[in-house]
Every structure is written in C-alpha cells, then in structure tokens.
Design a protein that fits this description.
The radius of gyration is 23 Å and the shape is globular. It contains 7 helices and 11 strands. A 5-stranded antiparallel beta sheet has the order 2-3-1-4-5. The chain is 33% helix and 27% strand.
C-alpha cells in the first residue's frame, strides 16, 4: 500500500472520527417559538413600520410601562430571529383548514380569514444555546400583533402552543396586560380523551427550550381539576425556567405532587399524586 493511500485513509479516518464525536456532543437544547400571521395581501409590512408601531407608537404603552424598549428592539437584528413571507399559491398546504382542525380557537371567523388569505408571515425565533434573558418572549407577541395590524390580518397561529388568536383577542390580551412574558399567553394544557386513556398534555414549553409533557392516564371525572392543576404547574415551570424531577402544586385546599419521568422515544411523563390536607 503506497504512502499516499495510507495518508488518504488517515485523513478520512480523522474526519469521520471528528464528525462522530461532534455528532455525539452536539447540543440537544433548542428553544423555539414560531407564529404564522395570515394576511389578505401578498406583501409583508416593512421592518421600519413594525419598529415604529412596536417602539415609538406602541398602542399598548402605559405610563412608566413601555412594553418594547431599545433592548427588545435589538431582537430585530438578532440572527436567531427569522421573518419570511410565504405565498399561498406556492404553499397551498399551509392554508388548508384541516391543518388547524384541532387547534385551540379555530373558529368560523378564522376559517373565513384563512380562505381569504393570500400569504402568511412566519415569525420564528430559535436558539440552540441556552438563553440568558426573555426579551424574545416579550418581543414576539408584539411583532405578531404589529404584523397583523399593519398587514390587516385577522388571525395568527401560535405553532408551539397550537392555538389560534384573532387580531381582536391578541389586542385585548395586550391591552389588559402589556407584559407579554406571562405563562397564559404562551402555554396551555389540553385534556385528551381517547379510547385507551385520558390524559392532559401541555403545549408551548419549547419556547423555553423545555419538553412538553403529558400526564399518566386519568379518570374522566378528573378532567376539569387535572387541567387546572397542570396549568398551575405550567405557571411554576414558566417562572423557574426548569422542569424539576418533582414539584408540589397547591390547589383547592390540597397539595399535588408531580413526579416527572423521562421515557425513550416518548413525551416526558408526569405522574400526579394527591396529598389531602389534614
């Protein structure tokens, strides 16, 4: 075997080894939030117009409470932010009603807006590195609202929360409380009733780089209570930014213990134990 062949083999081996090590050590962290804003025209608002509405002419600003300031405005130039116009005639599959059939809030009004839409604006923020602050969480709902207002859109789809917001609903949410960094605007719990089991699943934790979870099977008469205590758990997780192995939730005079278990190729499992107050 000639020295050249040996050298080539050595180089290929080194490259393959480096690739394998890099693949094994790659970060599994991913924080991602994505919104689709459906518009009746085939043009997206300019960034300048969005910045003006969000910062200097923000309709949700209150005395001593400016929701989007210079710090949040810098997200516009962050490489982790991606905004793109998607045309209906080139991407019909993103405009089909069946895509939203199970989404929270999909109404006849949203269906009509979907039928009339000619485009959508994708607003996505994604990071493979842990994020030290939540400016992006505050920024995104306002960027979405500005896109709807300036583009005369009537609804948007929060992909990670799997929820539809009408323009009026989002406007009311931000009018009532202009702090967009709150759990109820980004997360939700949903009770799923299926033939084999009933359970509560969560939507939206990917925005913090966390796994959504599902509960162990629950009795059907536990539906309302289970959703409420999972929502309380989500609020606590949202505040801490982590999912512990175990956590306690106080609700309705009782203490509920959540034990989280990781499963291979399955969602994170939450087992709930009720500890009655003495």
């Amino acid at each position: 075997m000639t020295p050249i062949i040996l050298l080539i083999g050595l180089v290929i081996g080194l490259v393959a080894g480096y690739t394998l090590i890099s693949w094994r050590n790659r970060s599994k962290y991913l924080a991602i939030a994505e919104y689709w804003v459906y518009l009746p025209a085939d043009k997206m608002p300019s960034q300048d117009a969005m910045m003006t509405r969000m910062i200097s002419e923000n309709p949700f600003a209150k005395p001593r409470s400016q929701p989007i300031g210079p710090a949040e405005g810098l997200i516009f130039s962050d490489i982790r932010l991606h905004m793109a116009l998607v045309l209906k005639h080139k991407n019909e599959h993103l405009f089909r009603p069946d895509r939203f059939a199970l989404a929270e809030g999909f109404s006849p009004e949203a269906l009509q807006s979907l039928n009339n839409a000619k485009s959508l604006v994708k607003i996505r923020f994604a990071s493979e590195e842990p994020i030290s602050d939540r400016r992006y969480i505050q920024f995104l709902p306002y960027a979405t609202e500005a896109t709807m207002a300036l583009g005369e859109g009537h609804f948007m789809y929060d992909l990670k929360q799997d929820r539809i917001y009408s323009r009026d609903q989002l406007h009311q949410e931000l009018t009532t409380d202009n702090n967009a960094n709150r759990a109820d605007l980004h997360l939700r719990a949903e009770f799923l009733s299926e033939a084999e089991s009933n359970r509560v699943v969560t939507r939206g934790l990917a925005k913090l780089g966390l796994e959504d979870f599902e509960t162990a099977p629950l009795p059907i008469d536990f539906k309302v209570l289970s959703v409420q205590i999972v929502e309380k758990a989500l609020e606590q997780i949202w505040q801490s930014g982590t999912i512990p192995v175990q956590m306690e939730i106080e609700a309705f005079g009782d203490t509920f213990i959540f034990n989280f278990e990781r499963r291979r190729n399955q969602p994170l499992l939450a087992k709930i134990q009720r500890m009655s107050a003495i």
